Predict the 3D structure of the following.
Amino acid sequence: MSLSLGPLIVAAADPVAVERFWRAALGPDECRDRLRIRQEYEPKVVKNRVHPDVYVNEIAPLLALGATVLAEFPEWTTLADVEGNEFCAFPSKTDIESPARLFAVCTDSDRPEELASWWAQRVGADLRAGPDGTLRWLYDCAGWDGLVWKFVRNSDERVAVNRWQWSVLGDGFVDPQGNEVSAAR
């Protein structure tokens, strides 16, 4: 099976506010190309199992847009957007024009190597080692030019539908670990 990935689908209680935040953070073109915001009527109840990683020149512009700091680490800062959706901000090695530039999508999994291998076969990706040396990062995914797909080891119990989902061109489905996959529109 050969699939092509589409934009990230973001479920939002206030789609206008979430789109306003991400449009200002990423710039209108990248937001349009990479994200689709849809209405969600259920409140966010747990940490998202899918989240973006962005490069930034500095954190302050994102805070001015309404982001909040959740945690600070030596190499990155975990932030939340205006609805509490987590994302990680890494210092950019080159100057970027917008406050942030999307460079990766992270998916939590208790078996990240298994899920990364499954997806690599379906999206024609180059499967490479993450920082711990295990094969769980995907490069050159069909449809996701320039993005890395990171499968992150996390054994949190799945108790809610992913508020952030990736999409595929074609029909939506559920992958072997229960992640909902939307059909790209």
